[in-house]
């Protein structure tokens, strides 16, 4: 048996090809260093790592052999960069599909990974799709061929479906960041970059669309360095540009790579064309220099004026990539079937295997502050798996699960750690987009799906051996909402569909407005909600009428206010009596609040019990001496959270608020849970205005791309919408402008942009954060809300 940390040494003795690990002590120690870098954002890992080595389950030789040739990767990018087109090629070259079908292709089949009818009609990816394939790669140094098993998740690019990217990255070990060779780093690229950083996901970059007029890979490499602040260098030089693009120079192994045969299926290696030799030498030197900035071994060689060998270079790229310090940049054109296979070789060579990613869980039996428990991808260890995505399939609920530790078997009894419920796994499948393959068991480090298992997205499963729960993923707050009702008589399918979608997608929320009795759905954008309304019609046969989309405003207090409130009611029979004393205050400063809402830190987390823990709402019980009996404290807490549901300024939920209960009073007969709940709500409403509340609105980062001649119209249009221009870039005949605009000012923008650019402008927007509205607008919102209140209507 071998300890987890001995993996590197063991690998060297057993089977690891030279390109994946340098079998020396230095690679071992580097592995440790990288592990701690990779988990820098997670608490107390360093302390734990030292002690926990003995707690970790040992890996067997079989484990190591399997894990070394296993990769779990995601393909993420800005909308329309070519992720689905690229994944289609990957599936074709790995033999997973027999032919290539294009997104919006003339054959009307559509790409494999866009399996929903809606996706094929709209030509966009809505849900992430999982698949797996095997890739045979030949080591250019040893000439040995190895088979790698790759799980791939293709994620949507549109920001409205950002949760799909979020949950995919949560369970992946590495990613391909796709960029367009013309547009480069776009708004959604920065979002994906942030998400990759949040989950410590190493990435290789792929500059796609090298065949497009205006393709310029060097500008894109530069943008990765400056805009994403990620040290990067190309590992390829293009052979031919734009429509002449026909292959790449491999700078690491010093050779030319071309595609031949049907749809580029054959990879041909050749000498580097003589006219590219100088450029290739300069770019290899640039690669070495960039690596020297982040890797000691290469830095030492550079200092001694020595050139690294191909093996040394390749190992350094791997180390630095896994260490989240560097991104190698590959070039290609998915649509022209050029240089996709070298990217697959790059996935195997430079992205980590499941054992190289440090993963921690929380002990569900201990408080949240207890140190995390590191997991080990050993097949014989107790099972720990995370359900990261739910989907309604033809045969019931399909639950996607990533196994972190142990083995999941068909017919095995497993436990949902949150609910403690026992479940027998009825059916286990490996997913290939909408098709599936039945399997008997799934080992650690793999992704599969179970049928007929009731759970929530984010639940952890175990086999009873350990009681561990995985930490949560970031769930952004909804920015837009609309009222919805069935067209005609409401059937049970109406609520069935809404329940289903809420369970699948944590960014989709449903609530009933108690005053207007309307059902309100909220989400990440108009398209997001539109897709669900359409799915209700198609999948549940429910035609819906929707109201006008409304911005999801929020309220927040900005100052502390003390309360001393008595709730008293005497109406004949038993009375009601409760007294509460304490204060409310903001938890975070304005700046901190903006950080939280922009997702730099997880705002909504799932605690040990699986319940949502809102970091921006907190109740503290500071009562001493029993002035409020302990059995009434939960009622005070409940009342507080109830009061937060609806602020009295505009009727929107209140965030960033802490209530501290310090004192109170009770009556031996008349006090009850109801009385304390009502007393807290009363106290809160009474002093709310003294806590200087403000209304917050979602601010969006808007990116517009249009031909240069329309630049002034576009900027003028954004200015009239009170936008702040934060970046703009002019390329040959196109320009990009990035602005921050309040979502409330963005309604109707697509029509305006179409009109002012003769239909040639495009825009995308993503949620940035919530900010206080201007005082006059706050007054308008308050007045409008007052008119909707029952007393105003009388
Ligand atoms: N010129 C050129 N066009 C490409 C290339 N790859 C993809 N495209 C085109 O770009 C468009 C978008 O491609 P998709 O594969 O749907 O992009 P995506 O990133 O998956 O899109 P979403 O999932 O909706 O974000 C399609 O019209 C493709 O044909 C390429 O290498 N060169």
TrEMBL record:
InterPro entries: EFG_II, EFG_III, EFG_III/V, EFG_IV, EFG_V-like, EFTu-like_2, G_TR_CS, P-loop_NTPase. Pathway: Protein biosynthesis; polypeptide chain elongation. It is found in: Mitochondrion. CDD domains: EF-G, EFG_III, EFG_mtEFG1_IV, mtEFG1_II_like. Its main location: mitochondrion. It comes from the Eukaryota. Residues 68-355 form the Tr-type G domain. One of its GO terms (cellular component) is mitochondrion. GTP binds at residues 77-84, 154-158, 208-211. One of its GO terms (molecular function) is GTP binding. One of its GO terms (biological process) is mitochondrial translational elongation. Mitochondrial GTPase that catalyzes the GTP-dependent ribosomal translocation step during translation elongation. During this step, the ribosome changes from the pre-translocational (PRE) to the post-translocational (POST) state as the newly formed A-site-bound peptidyl-tRNA and P-site-bound deacylated tRNA move to the P and E sites, respectively. Catalyzes the coordinated movement of the two tRNA molecules, the mRNA and conformational changes in the ribosome. NCBIfam families: EF-G (TIGR00484), small_GTP (TIGR00231). This is Elongation factor G, mitochondrial.
């Amino acid at each position: 048996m071998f300890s987890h940390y001995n993996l590197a040494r063991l690998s060297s003795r057993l089977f690891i090809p030279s390109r994946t690990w340098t079998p020396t002590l230095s690679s071992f120690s580097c592995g440790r260093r990288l592990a701690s870098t990779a988990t820098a954002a997670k608490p107390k890992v360093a302390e734990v790592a030292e002690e926990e080595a003995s707690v970790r389950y040992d890996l067997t030789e079989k484990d190591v052999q399997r894990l070394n040739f296993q990769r779990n990767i995601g393909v993420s990018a800005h909308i329309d960069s070519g992720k689905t087109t690229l994944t289609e090629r990957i599936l074709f070259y790995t033999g997973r599909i027999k032919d290539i079908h294009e997104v919006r292709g003339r054959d009307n089949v559509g790409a494999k990974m866009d399996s929903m009818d809606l996706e094929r009609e709209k030509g966009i990816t809505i849900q992430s799709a999982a698949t797996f394939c095997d890739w045979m790669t030949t080591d250019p140094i040893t000439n040995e061929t190895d088979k790698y098993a790759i799980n791939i998740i293709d994620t949507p690019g549109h920001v409205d479906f950002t949760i799909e990217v979020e949950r995919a990255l949560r369970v992946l070990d590495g990613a391909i960041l796709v960029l367009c060779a013309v547009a480069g780093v776009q708004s959604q690229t920065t979002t994906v970059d942030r998400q990759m950083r949040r989950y410590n996901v190493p990435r290789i970059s792929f500059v796609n669309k090298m065949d497009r007029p205006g393709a310029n890979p060097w500008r894109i490499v530069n943008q990765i360095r400056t805009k994403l602040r990620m040290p990067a260098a190309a590992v390829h030089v293009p052979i031919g540009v734009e429509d002449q693009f026909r292959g790449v120079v491999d700078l690491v192994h010093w050779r030319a790579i071309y595609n031949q045969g049907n749809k580029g299926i054959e990879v041909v290696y050749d000498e580097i064309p003589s006219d590219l030799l100088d450029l290739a030498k300069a770019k290899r030197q640039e690669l070495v220099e960039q690596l020297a900035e982040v890797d000691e071994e290469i830095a030492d060689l550079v200092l001694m004026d020595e050139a690294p060998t191909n093996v040394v270079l390749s190992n350094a790229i791997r180390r630095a990539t896994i260490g989240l310090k560097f991104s190698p940049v590959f070039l290609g054109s998915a649509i022209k079937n050029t240089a996709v296979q070298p990217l697959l070789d790059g996935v195997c060579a430079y992205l980590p295997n499941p054992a190289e990613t440090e993963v921690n869980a929380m002990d569900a039996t201990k408080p949240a502050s207890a140190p995390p428990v590191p997991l080990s991808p050993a097949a014989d260890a107790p099972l720990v798996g995370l359900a990261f995505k739910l989907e309604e399939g033809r045969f019931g609920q399909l639950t996607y699960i990533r196994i972190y530790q142990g083995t999941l078997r068909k017919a095995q009894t497993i436990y949902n750690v949150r609910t403690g419920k026992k479940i027998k796994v009825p059916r286990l499948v490996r997913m290939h987009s909408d098709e599936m393959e039945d399997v008997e068991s799934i080992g650690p480090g793999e992704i599969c799906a179970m049928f007929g298992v009731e759970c929530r997205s984010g639940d952890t499963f175990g086999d009873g051996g350990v009681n561990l729960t995985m930490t949560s993923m970031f769930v952004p707050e909804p920015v837009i909402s609309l009222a919805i009702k069935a067209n005609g008589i409401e059937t049970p399918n109406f609520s069935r569909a809404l329940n289903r979608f809420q369970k699948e997608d944590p960014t989709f929320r449903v609530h009933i407005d108690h005053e207007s009795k309307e059902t309100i759905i909220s989400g990440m954008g108009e398209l997001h909600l539109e897709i669900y309304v359409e799915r209700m019609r198609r999948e549940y046969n429910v035609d819906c009428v929707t109201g006008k989309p409304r911005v999801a405003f929020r309220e927040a207090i900005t100052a502390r206010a003390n309360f001393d409130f008595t709730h008293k009611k005497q109406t004949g029979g038993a009375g009601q009596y409760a007294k509460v004393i304490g204060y409310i205050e903001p938890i975070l400063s304005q700046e901190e609040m903006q950080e939280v809402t922009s997702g730099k830190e997880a705002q909504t987390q799932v605690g040990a019990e699986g319940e949502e823990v809102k970091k921006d709402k907190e109740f503290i019980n500071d009562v001493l001496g029993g002035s409020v009996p302990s059995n009434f404290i939960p009622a005070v807490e409940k009342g507080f959270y109830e009061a937060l549901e609806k602020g009295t300024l505009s009727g929107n939920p209140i965030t960033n608020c802490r209530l501290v209960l310090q004192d109170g009073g009770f009556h031996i007969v008349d006090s009850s849970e109801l009385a304390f709940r009502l007393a807290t709500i009363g106290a809160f409403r009474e002093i709310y205005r003294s806590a200087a509340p403000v209304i917050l609105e979602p601010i969006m980062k808007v990116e517009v791309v249009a031909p240069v001649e329309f630049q002034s119209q576009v900027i003028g249009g954004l200015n009239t919408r009170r936008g702040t221009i934060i970046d703009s870039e002019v390329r040959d005949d196109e320009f990009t402008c990035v602005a921050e605009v309040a979502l409330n000012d963005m309604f109707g923008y697509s029509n305006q942009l179409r009109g002012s650019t003769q239909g040639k402008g495009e825009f995308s927007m993503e949620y940035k954060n919530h900010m206080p509205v201007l005082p006059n607008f706050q007054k308008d919102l308050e007045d409008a809300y007052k008119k909707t209140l029952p007393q105003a209507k009388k």
